[in-house]
Design a protein that fits this description.
Elements: H1 6-17, E1 19-22, E2 28-30, E3 44-47
Antiparallel strand pairs: 1-2, 1-3
The structure holds zinc ion.
Length: 56
């Protein structure tokens, strides 16, 4: 179900895409996390992927 409401899109982006991804095991972590919650690796990258904006 594609979201078209820009307000909802923003909420989803903030809640889902503002994460860090572990390069070691791929687990999602909080943006504030410094260590992976699964493998305790510090090799985290921010997940910057954004939702496709079809309305642009
Ligand atoms: Zn990990």
């Amino acid at each position: 179900m594609p979201l078209t409401d820009p307000v909802k899109l923003q909420i989803v982006q903030q809640r889902v895409f503002i994460k860090k991804v572990c390069r070691n095991c791929g687990a999602l972590n909080s943006i504030k996390a410094t260590k992976c919650r699964r493998c305790h690796s510090t090799n985290l990258r921010p997940k910057k992927k954004e939702l496709p904006t079809k309305k642009a």
